[in-house]
Each structure stands twice: as structure tokens, then as C-alpha cells.
Amino acid sequence: MGFCLFNNVAVAARAFQAGFGGRVLVVDFDYHHGNGTEAVAGDGLSYVSTHAYPAYPGTGAQSYRRSDDLIVNAPVPVAGISTEGFVALWQYLLPTVARIVRPDLLIVSAGFDYVAGDSVGDLGVDVDAAAPLAAVIRDVAAEHCGGSVAYVLEGGYGIAALTRSIAAVAAVSDGAQPKSGTADPSAIPADVSQALHIFLRSG
């Protein structure tokens, strides 16, 4: 749709599958829905995303299955979500999806435009959320993929927040523990939580 020529995460996923086989789960916490990534899911590629809805591109309202693969969309209000709710959402969502998908590799669409004050996105989430996000990704990769995870930088248009987020991801990936522990699941917006529970328990 004009924002990129190549979908880097999709290319990486298919290259991994061509070289090694196996299943890939794309993890997308960018502000915008990855409609291009969703479009190519299937054939061993699953996709899980949080995104502002109905912000551009206006897609990602529903979750569904494509053969044995999952497309799990968790749309959050454009007005934003609390930091606690955002972290709790991923701490529930990613391990649950991974238990179903059983991926051999995680590829992360790492867009930090969800951070409060971002000029393009802004879900009102504190910059410090990057550390607990990286921790749940690291732990899920360790459980299912032998630690195999790749990050691909996506959005994020405030240099200070972007660099802090990247540094936090690098530190946690190297073994540092985030200051915060498990977020309160009750902070997840009720409609989002209910829709995910219904979909993920249906299969």
C-alpha cells in the first residue's frame, strides 16, 4: 500500500521455511495492523498482532484460521490502552498462541510507534513496556523454538523512545530481567479479552 516495497518479515519467514522447514510465528506489536503479513499467512506461517483499530489501514478486526495456521488479531482502541493492559495482553496472548501453533521460529515486527507521544502512532503506552514485551518473547522462544527469535525494526518515529526501546530489547534478549513482573490481566480491555478467549478456546 505504498509504505514498503518488500515485506521483510514475510520474506524472512519464507526463506527460513525454504532453508530449514518448520513453522513460523510472526509477532507484531506495531501500532498499525500488518495487513500484508496477514495476507501471506498460511502454509506454516501464523500471525499474531496488537494494533490500533480502526486506524490505518483499517484492517485486523477479526481472528481466523487458515488451514492449520492462526491469524490472531487483537485490535485496541485508537484512544489507547494502559501500559499495564498492553503488557498483560501480550503476556497472555503470545504464550497461548504459541502453545497452539508450536513454532520453530519467532519473527517480531518490532514497531515502537505504540509508545506515548509517537508522532505517527501513540497508544499511550510507556516506553518501558519494551522490556517486559521482550521478556515474554524470549521466554516463549526458549520454550518452543530453542530460543530462535529474530527482530525486524518497523515503526517508531521518536528517536529517544526508539533507541530506549531497542536497548531494552537487546538487554533482555541477553538475559537481563525487566523491573516489572507479570502484569494484571484485568487491565486488558474486557471486549478484547473476551474475544480472544472465545477464539483461542474454540480450537
Written account of the structure:
Strands 3-4-2-1-5-6 form a 6-stranded mixed beta sheet, sandwiched between helices. It has a single domain, classed as 3-Layer(aba) Sandwich (Arginase, Chain A). The chain is an alpha/beta fold and 203 residues long. Helix 3 runs parallel beside helix 4 and helix 4 (130-144) runs parallel beside helix 5. The relative contact order is 0.17. The chain has helices at residues 8-20, 35-40, 83-101, 130-144, 159-173, 190-202, and strands at residues 24-28, 45-53, 64-66, 69-77, 105-110, 149-153. It contains 6 helices and 6 strands; from the N terminus they run H-E-H-E-E-E-H-E-H-E-H-H. It starts with 7 loop residues before the first helix and ends with a helix.
- Indicate the radius of gyration in whole angstroms: 15 Å
- Strand content bin: 15-25%
Strands across the major sheet, in which order?
Answer: 3-4-2-1-5-6
- Structurally, how many domains make up the residues? 1
- CATH architecture classification name: 3-Layer(aba) Sandwich
Q: Which ranges are low-confidence, i.e. pLDDT below 50, for 5 or more consecutive residues?
A: none
Q: Could you tell me the mean pLDDT? A: 95
- Spatial separation of the terminal alpha carbons: 33 Å
Biggest sheet features: 6 strands, mixed
H/E topology pattern: HEHEEEHEHEHH
Number of strands: 6
Figure out the total of helices: 6
CATH superfamily: Histone deacetylase domain
Helix content: 25-40%
CATH topology: Arginase, Chain A
Shape annotation: globular
The secondary-structure class comes to alpha/beta
